[in-house]
Amino acid sequence: MPPSYTDDQIVYAVRDGRITPAQLDRMAQGMIDLVNKTRAAMSIDNYRFDVDVHDEVAHQAAIESIVMLKNDDAILPLNAGPVANPSATPQKIAVIGEFARTPRYQGGGSSHITPTKMTSFLDTLAERGIKADFAPGFTLDMEPADPALESEAVETAKNADVVLMFLGLPEAAESEGFDRDTLDMPAKQITLLEQVAAANQNVVVVLSNGSVITVAPWAKNAKGILESWLLGQSGGPALADVIFGQVSPSGKLAQSIPLDINDDPSMLNWPGEEGHVDYGEGVFVGYRYYDTYGKAVDYPFGYGLSYATFEITGVAVAKTGANTATVNATVTNTSDVDAAETVQVYVVPGKADVARPKHELKGFTKVFLKSGESKTVTIDLDERAFAYWSEKYNDWHVESGEYAIEVGVSSRDIADTVAVALEGDGKTQPLTEWSTYGEWEADPFGAKIVAAVAAAGEAGELPKLPDNAMMRMFLNSMPINSLPTLLGEGGKKIAQFMVDEYAKLSK
């Protein structure tokens, strides 16, 4: 179940059968377990947690969440001058956008909490002694643009070496209580960006948004783009650390960025009819759809740039059980910048009895490497990594056969592919006269009986089945009780022979 379900959505999901009572029980138990984890601390008289320690945790989480989408002409990191480098001449920086002063640090609705601290980007610049000219440029609402604010912003941009534009979605544009009908930023922000870019070509856009927005329509106006999402209470220091190069960005996209909202498979069913929405895309959501059907995207799932460069070599896979494996790869930092890279492992199924995505992310690990350093990473793949949910078995199912293992740094940037052969979990369904000939051939017992039918046909004990491609195609897809349709009385004898032999073998 997606973690973004709201209370009312859970009610509908239970009603519609998308969440079972057992799943609901596990959700409730998880909440109880979370409460129990805090019980010991909360039972201490006059207990106080360390606000600064918690703020630093928020700071580090924010740093690792920032995704760098674009960095043309190495516009980032910026030079803060003597604060970061005593021998450097500081760049003249303009900061434009109300988000820099009034950060949107959390989502709307029931996700609201009270932070222990709140440090904006402008607060951080002041604390660190970094000079910058600021203009809000727009208001954080869905109201029309304010020409006076736009004019001030453009004038501020003209006098800067580089412009940091803080853009994104105001809270009124997205919340858990309603669906968005566009992936675009407010038009007044895009217009302001175009005006600023016309006055100064060195623009870096810093985004604040809870869910994905389209980038392609305005990206030409920015040399750099940072997707910072909603960074929490310590987002200001985290952004400053990345923008001024104290750390290299290392976040990766957990969501593909499409070129257009209509490219998303859910649009076929949304917003539904007569109070009902079909989740018709099934397992083909996000990158599973885009990659399977070769759909162009702006930025793929798992994407994220760094100030460093990396190389992945020595990819190998080894079986650790009938349906488990371990993947090894060597990651090398090939630059002069200390930074982290996230190694991603995707599993590609072979021929399957059901529709499966082209590949699925089944493991990843982030590794920090100093300049020139190499490390070998290991990612274990358990049985579930190869399984799909089978309606037929009402259980997870691993089919036997060869699976490809892709190792890369996004769903569309694969460094190497290796193969592993699995034995499968051996799950079978009882065969009956309604089972197709193809299902009999695929079953361990059924395959022996099919072979016996062929042998009996050669010996003249049973009618001989036609042996040509067209007839084989019909046979494989039809229940064996339909054999009389093709073979008359002889087909009836073959079907009865198969059912009788199966009864003997499956005792």
Describe how the helices and strands are arranged:
Layout: H1 7-16, H2 21-42, H3 51-65, E1 67-71, E2 93-96, H4 121-128, E3 133-135, H5 147-158, E4 162-168, H6 187-199, E5 203-208, E6 224-227, H7 235-243, E7 257-258, H8 287-292, E8 297-299, E9 310-321, E10 324-333, E11 339-348, E12 360-369, E13 374-381, E14 388-390, E15 395-397, E16 401-410, E17 413-422, H9 437-442, H10 444-459, H11 469-477, H12 483-487, H13 489-505
Parallel strand pairs: 2-3, 2-4, 4-5, 5-6
Antiparallel strand pairs: 1-6, 7-8, 9-10, 10-13, 11-12, 11-16, 14-15, 16-17
Helix pairs in contact: 3-7, 4-7, 5-6, 10-13
β-strand number: 17
Note the total helix count.
Answer: 13
Which H/E pattern describes the elements? HHHEEHEHEHEEHEHEEEEEEEEEEHHHHH
DSSP strand content: 15-25%
Q: For the largest sheet, list the strands in their spatial order.
A: 1-6-5-4-2-3
Mean pLDDT: 91
* Low-confidence blocks of residues: 1-6
What is the general shape? elongated
Radius of gyration, whole Å: 29 Å
* Percent in helix: 25-40%
Main sheet summary: 6 strands, mixed
Structural class estimated from helices and strands: alpha/beta
Distance between the termini: 40 Å
